[in-house]
């Protein structure tokens, strides 16, 4: 069973849209996105442009949909889709719950709300080597300190946890995590405190906006960010996309559910390979490949061969 994975903010690198395959499906996707947004989307992935949350999130949606369409042109479609954070928007397009143009408009609104809520001074850190329970225990003392509070944002793997907070809080927490036995504690290239209650108001605004966005029941299985479970209705997918910015992303649970449901080949959309690395580490018997690491003209062939 073929499953597509779509990465979130932090996976981006300068020029990643320019590195997409030079085929008709990708060109059409870039052209459509440019028309919808009223700008040349190839200006979004420069190092300077990617300092903007809006540019990063739009670029990630575009890259994910471009891969989906490239493979669809080769007769390959996903039986399951899951995306981490903003990657969920590309996943919703991939499972046909949301039109590409609507995904772009809603993703832009999401990023603008997040960026305006916290234009600076906040972000995310990735902690490797400690469990969620251990991170919770370390963070417990920060709960009554508004400026110093630490939130669990993503559970990407049993010992790979992302936390959110202010710059000062993250710097202090990284030191505490390392002292407690973490292998690594690294600030991510994300400038907003995603997936926590700091974005509650922005999430409420996006939920109100989404009421006028047309969604459909997904045609292939969509795995939610917040619940890490299959979502079957249009309203459930809408709620997942609109509210995931204020809730912890249960990525490892979502990955585990996909495998329990029969996923045998996981394909990560560009950019990077962080999601397939997580899968390969936790589930070495499940095949996982990153589109970014395979020659453009060999991707479909590689997928067919590995599906058997």
Automatic annotation (TrEMBL):
Catalytic residue list: 85, 195
Top EC class for this record: transferase
Residue ranges occupied by any Malonyl-CoA:ACP transacylase (MAT) domain in the UniProt entry: 5-307
Keywords, sorted A to Z: Acyltransferase, Transferase
Reaction catalyzed: holo-[ACP] + malonyl-CoA = malonyl-[ACP] + CoA
Enzyme Commission code: 2.3.1.39
Highest taxon in the source lineage: Bacteria
GO terms of biological process kind: fatty acid biosynthetic process
One of the record's GO molecular function terms: [acyl-carrier-protein] S-malonyltransferase activity
Span of the signal peptide: none
GO cellular component terms listed in the entry, alphabetical order: cytosol
UniProt family annotation: Belongs to the fabD family.
Listed PANTHER family: MALONYL-COA-ACYL CARRIER PROTEIN TRANSACYLASE, MITOCHONDRIAL (PTHR42681)
NCBIfam families: malonate_mdcH
Protein name in the entry: Malonyl CoA-acyl carrier protein transacylase
The organism of origin for this protein: Trinickia terrae
Gene coding for it: mdcH
């Amino acid at each position: 069973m073929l499953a597509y994975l779509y990465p979130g903010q932090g996976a981006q690198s300068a020029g990643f849209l320019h590195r997409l395959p030079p085929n008709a499906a990708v060109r059409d996707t870039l052209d459509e996105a440019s028309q919808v947004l009223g700008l040349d989307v190839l200006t979004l992935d420069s190092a300077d442009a990617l300092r903007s949350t809006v540019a990063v999130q739009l670029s990630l949606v575009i890259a994910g949909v471009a891969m989906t369409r490239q493979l669809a042109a080769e007769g390959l479609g996903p039986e399951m889709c899951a995306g981490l954070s903003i990657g969920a928007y590309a996943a919703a397009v991939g499972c046909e719950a949301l039109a590409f143009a609507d995904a772009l408009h809603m993703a832009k609104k999401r990023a603008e709300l997040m960026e305006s809520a916290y234009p600076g001074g906040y972000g995310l850190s990735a902690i490797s080597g400690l469990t969620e329970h251990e991170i919770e225990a370390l963070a417990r003392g920060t709960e009554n300190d508004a400026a110093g509070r630490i939130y669990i944002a993503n559970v990407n793997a049993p010992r790979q946890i992302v936390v959110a907070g202010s710059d000062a809080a993250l710097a202090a927490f990284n030191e505490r995590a390392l002292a407690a036995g973490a292998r690594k504690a690294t600030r991510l290239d994300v400038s907003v405190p995603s997936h926590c209650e700091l974005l509650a108001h922005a999430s409420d605004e996006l939920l109100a906006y989404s009421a006028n966005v047309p969604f459909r029941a997904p045609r292939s299985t969509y795995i939610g960010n917040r619940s890490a479970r299959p979502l079957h209705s249009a309203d459930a997918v809408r709620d997942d996309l609109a509210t995931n910015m204020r809730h912890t992303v249960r990525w490892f649970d979502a990955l585990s559910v996909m495998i329990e449901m029969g996923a045998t080949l996981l394909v990560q959309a560009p950019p990077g390979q962080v999601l397939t690395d997580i899968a390969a580490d936790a589930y070495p018997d499940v095949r996982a490949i990153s589109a970014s690491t395979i020659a453009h003209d060999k991707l479909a062939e590689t997928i067919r061969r590995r599906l058997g």
